Amino acid sequence: MMSDFIPVNEPLLNGNELKYVQECIETGWISSEGPFVKRFEKEFASRVGRRHGIAVCNGSVALDAAVVALDIGQGDEVIMPTFTIISCAAALVRAGAIPVVVDCDPKTWNMDVRQIEDKITSRTKAIMVVHIYGLPVDMEPVIFLGEKYGMKIIEDAAEAHGLTYKDRACGSFGDISMFSFYPNKFITTGEGGMIVTDDDHLADRCRSLRNLCFQSKRRFVHEELGWNFRMSNIQAALGVAQLERLDESIAKKKYVGRRYNELLSDISGIQLPLPKMDCAENIYWIYGIVLDNDIPFDAEEAMRRLAKHKIGTRPFFWPMHEQPVFHRLGLFQNESCPVAERLARRGFYIPSGLTLTDTQMEKVAEALKDILKLQCLNLTTE
Ligand SMILES: Cc1ncc(COP(=O)(O)O)c(C=O)c1O
Fold first, then answer.
1. HEC sequence for the chain
2. CA 366, CA 266: separation in Å to the nearest integer?
3. Is the distance from CB of 96 to CB of 73 less than 8 angstroms?
4. Ligand 1 centre from 158 Cα, in Å?
5. Residue of 58, 63, 85, 109 to test ligand 1 pocket, by largest number of atoms within 8 Å of CB
6. What is the mean pLDDT of residues 260-274?
7. Mean pLDDT of the chain
8. Measured from the CA of 182, which atom of ligand 1 is nearest?
9. Residues lining ligand 1, judged by CB closer than 6 Å?
10. Quick one: pLDDT band at residue 382, thresholds 50, 70, 90?
């Protein structure tokens, strides 16, 4: 479909996707029993440097399974960033655990790891780290605290395929780590997710939880409640094809990031993504923009104005401690995380999909200049 609207994301499926999906249909292997599932698990886990991969039907349920597999339950506290998707806190709350949030760093937008130690209590069982928007969490202090206080690490690398921290793959740091394969990710299976771990016992637990906790002894007798979180062979076929092209996808996103940096660097009033930290280079999963405080409108208004220029956008995350659903459960009363609160109100992201062209990026940059320039004119005429 050709139109002059620039979507925030479009998946790219021009490798072996069709061939492998056709193979599923021709052989009749369409369920989770098919061979692409095992192949995807093996190849993906090996790419991240982990012993086990457990494919599931999306990233959110990977978090549910991870929490239960680690025996995190009633009354256990888990420290996590407030600036993330609801899936992270929801998995904890559903298991009866208590999410304890920290604010984020205003430059990297990742959790501020310096705030973790103050939040540790005798009930803290784990830290859930979440790599945000293309840069990693500073993992060394997290690993140090995990060891010092005997806490497990759950690593949400949903957005971080191919991202490294100190030359080591994100997704290789958690007792359990997970990824998402939603269409806006570096690798997509339509819907899908992957749990990775080096621990044989945790891998068995996740496999069992994913598959209704069927037992080998007598299939329909259950000792524990699980879920059907299985990934189909058709999804895994897409995943194998997408994994073959991961390096190209990362290179393209980095190019988009660099090009936007050039195009937008002379616009005042906006904060752009940090290109690199000491420990990592940005892989620009998305290209985020944060409006300075002196721009007299918020992200919602900026997105409305860009929509008039036919530019697709998405708002930044809304912090966990400001979620009505958690307030109703009595969580996060009087919690304040000013950095995340500001990012939620002043941050949004612009098109950065794998099909984006140079001309489209130039159009986005022009539109951004226009909506910010108009504002300056309004200010000077007032
Ligand atoms: C950080 C993070 N965690 C978890 C998820 C959940 O993944 P899914 O959409 O596959 O359920 C996402 C989804 O985008 C995410 O960005």
1. CCCCCECCCCCCCCCCHHHHHHHHHHHCCCCCCCHHHHHHHHHHHHHHCCCEEEEECCHHHHHHHHHHHCCCCCCCEEEEECCCCHHHHHHHHHCCCEEEEECECCCCCCECHHHCHHHCCCCEEEEEEECECCECCCHHHHHHHHHHHCCEEEEECCCCCCCEECCEECCCCCCEEEEECCCCCCCCCCCCEEEEECCHHHHHHHHHHHECCCCCCCCCCCCCCCCECECCHHHHHHHHHHHHCHHHHHHHHHHHHHHHHHHHCCCCCEECCCCEECCEECCCCCEEEEECCCCCCCHHHHHHHHHHCCECCEECCCCHHHCHHHHHCCCCCCCCCHHHHHHHHHEEEECCCCCCCHHHHHHHHHHHHHHHHHHHHHHHHC
2. 12
3. yes
4. 5
5. 85
6. 97
7. 96
8. 10
9. 58-60, 84-85, 87, 130, 156, 158-159, 180, 182, 193
10. very low
User: What is the distance in A from the centroid of ligand 1 to the CA of 310?
Assistant: 26
Q: Are strands 152-156 and 124-130 parallel, antiparallel or unpaired?
A: parallel
Claim: this prediction has a pTM higher than 0.70: yes
Ligand 1, atom 3: nearest CA belongs to which residue?
158
Of the chain, the percentage scoring pLDDT greater than 90 comes to 96
| Nearest CA residue ID for atom 15, ligand 1 | 158
Burial class (CB in 10 A: 0-12, 13-18, 19+), 361: buried
Q: How confident is the model at residue 374 (pLDDT cuts 50, 70, 90)?
A: low
Integer Cα distance of 119 and 314 in angstroms: 31
CA distance 131 to 9: 19
Handedness of CA 164, 44, 88, 145 (dihedral sign): negative
* Residue identifier of the C-alpha nearest atom 10 of ligand 1: 59
Q: How far is CA 26 from CA 23, 36, 39, 64, 234, in A?
A: 5, 14, 18, 34, 11
Spatial distance between the Cα atoms of 113 and 121, rounded to a whole number of angstroms: 16
- Give the contacts of 296 (CB within 8 A, at least 6 positions apart): 375, 379
- Show the tokens assigned to 337: 């995380």
Of the candidates 52, 89, 60, 58, the one whose C-alpha atom is nearest the C-alpha of residue 72 is 89
